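Issue 218. Parser rejects a valid record. Input:
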Amino acid sequence: MTGFEIEPGAVERHGEQVSTHGSDYQAAVQRLRERGDGVSSWGDDGLFGEITAAYAECTQVSLLALTKVTGEIGGTGEGMVGTARDTRDRDHLTWG
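Output the parser choked on:
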């Protein structure tokens, strides 16, 4: 025993759950994206032009960052499932 053991079934189950969370997160980000930048609700009388432009830019940058987080969550889940598969394969070769 090395003190570092992986239970492939548990890692795979949790990896699938993380992937599901990634899909849920992606759906939430999509709903935010569909709402638009929020600027239209402020009206367009020219007084807040620079503020609304900055707000819209912040919204776009935030959505881009959140989209990247979605990819990381999904990649983590896929990595966990892959680790479980690799562990099973290795154990099968080691223990037959």
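Fixed in the parser; the record now loads. The two ends are 17 Å apart (CA to CA).
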